[in-house]
Write a structure and sequence with these properties.
heterodimer, A: four-stranded antiparallel beta sheet, B: mainly beta, 1 helix
C-alpha cells in the first residue's frame, strides 16, 4: 500500500523537483520526511509549529495522536494521551511542543482536552455554553486556542485562553 | 510514573475548569455559522470560514477591533477550506478551488501576492497547516482513498514571518 502511494505521489515530487532546479524560489517537497511519514502508515489532520508536527496516525488498528520532532526525525512519547477507547478527531500543537489540544470521541461523547507534555497531564475543557467541539487550533505561542463548536444546529467559534 | 501522571491528571481535572477564560468569536454578517478557525501566532488575527451563498469563504478578523480585513486575491477560489496563518498573519494558506480542481494557495498579505503551490492532480486535498514562521507547509491529502501527509519546504519561496517581524498590512490591498 505504501508503494502505491509512493507511486501516486512520485510525479509530483518530480515536477516540483525539476521546477526547483530551474528556480531557487519554488517550494520543495521534503522527501526524507515524507518517506518517514509514509513508512509510519496512514496519517491525517496535520498541525505544524516550530520543529513539531502533530498528526492523527493509524497505528496498531486505531487512530492515535502522534508528535514528531522534525529536526530529530523521530516521534516523541505522549504518555497518558492516547487511550484505546478514545478516537481523536482534531489535534493542534504549539511551537514549544509542550501543549497539544485534542478533540476526541470517548464513550459516545465528543470532548476537548489540553495535554501538557511536561506534566503528562490531560485537562478536559468543557464547552460553555454546552456544545459539541469539532476542530481545534492552538495559537503558536500556546496562550490561546480556538475551537469550532456545534450549538443548536449552528457552527460557532470559541476562543479560550490557556492558563 | 503512571501514578504521578494519574495524580496530575486528577488535580488538573479538578481545579482546571474554573480557570478557562472564554469568549465567542461572534457572528459575521447575515449568518452566525463560522467554521474551521485558525489564529495567527501572536493571536491578533482570526481566520475562519463562513457560508456565502453555497460556498464557504474565508474571513480574516482583527481580534482587537473586530474589523474584517479584505482578501480580494482569494475571490473566485471558493469554496475555501482549512485556513492557516503565520505568526504575524502575514501569510494565509488555505485549500481553494478552481473549476473542479482543489489547489493550495498562500496569500502574502504584506505584498498582496498569491502563491499557488503545485500539487499532483491525482490526489484529493483535505487539510493543511502552515508553520508559524511560514517556512514549511504540511498538506493532508487522500491518495487512492488513503490518507497521507506531505511536507513542503517554503524557505525558498517565502520570507520568514517570526515573532516581532514584519507587521501584516491589512489585506494586502492599497
Amino acid at each position: 500500500m505504501n508503494r502505491s502511494l509512493g507511486k501516486a505521489l512520485g510525479p509530483w515530487a518530480l515536477v516540483i523537483g525539476l521546477l526547483s532546479g530551474c528556480s531557487g524560489s519554488m517550494p520543495r517537497p521534503m522527501r526524507d520526511l515524507d518517506a518517514l511519514l509514509l513508512q509510519a502508515g496512514p496519517s491525517q489532520a496535520p498541525s505544524l509549529a516550530g520543529p513539531w508536527l502533530a498528526l492523527i496516525g493509524h497505528r496498531h488498528n486505531r487512530d492515535q495522536v502522534q508528535l514528531l520532532d522534525l529536526n530529530q526525525r523521530h516521534p516523541v512519547p505522549l504518555p497518558g494521551l492516547n487511550r484505546p477507547d478514545a478516537q481523536p478527531l482534531s489535534v493542534s500543537v504549539d511551537s514549544s511542543g509542550q501543549r497539544l489540544a485534542v478533540v476526541r470521541q470517548r464513550e459516545g461523547r465528543t470532548e476537548l482536552v489540553l495535554y501538557r507534555r511536561e506534566l503528562m497531564g490531560l485537562e478536559p475543557i468543557a464547552m460553555a455554553p454546552p456544545g459539541v467541539p469539532r476542530r481545534v487550533a492552538l495559537r503558536a505561542d500556546g496562550r490561546e486556542l480556538t475551537v469550532e463548536v456545534s450549538r443548536n444546529g449552528e457552527w460557532q467559534v470559541d476562543l479560550i485562553a490557556v492558563p | 510514573m503512571g501514578l504521578v501522571a494519574l495524580l496530575v491528571t486528577l488535580l488538573l481535572a479538578g481545579c482546571g475548569s474554573a480557570s478557562w477564560r472564554r469568549r465567542n468569536a461572534g457572528s459575521v454578517g447575515p449568518t452566525s455559522n463560522r467554521q474551521d478557525p485558525a489564529l495567527s501566532g501572536n493571536g491578533q488575527l482570526l481566520a475562519s470560514l463562513v457560508s456565502r451563498g453555497e460556498r464557504d469563504t474565508v474571513i480574516l478578523q482583527e481580534q482587537r477591533s473586530g474589523r474584517l480585513l479584505p482578501l480580494p486575491q482569494l475571490q473566485r477560489l471558493e469554496p475555501h477550506r482549512s485556513p492557516s496563518l503565520s505568526w504575524n498573519g502575514r501569510y494565509l494558506a488555505l485549500v481553494g478551488q478552481q473549476g473542479d480542481r482543489r489547489l493550495v494557495v498562500i496569500l502574502d498579505r504584506a505584498r498582496g501576492q498569491l502563491h499557488r503551490i503545485p500539487l499532483p492532480g491525482d490526489v484529493e486535498l483535505e487539510r493543511l497547516s502552515l508553520a508559524p514562521d511560514g517556512q514549511r507547509l504540511a498538506v493532508g491529502l487522500l491518495s487512492n482513498g488513503r490518507p497521507a501527509l506531505q511536507l513542503i519546504d517554503l524557505s525558498g519561496l517565502l520570507e520568514a514571518d517570526r515573532p516581532g517581524g514584519l507587521t501584516s498590512l491589512g489585506g494586502g490591498v492599497p
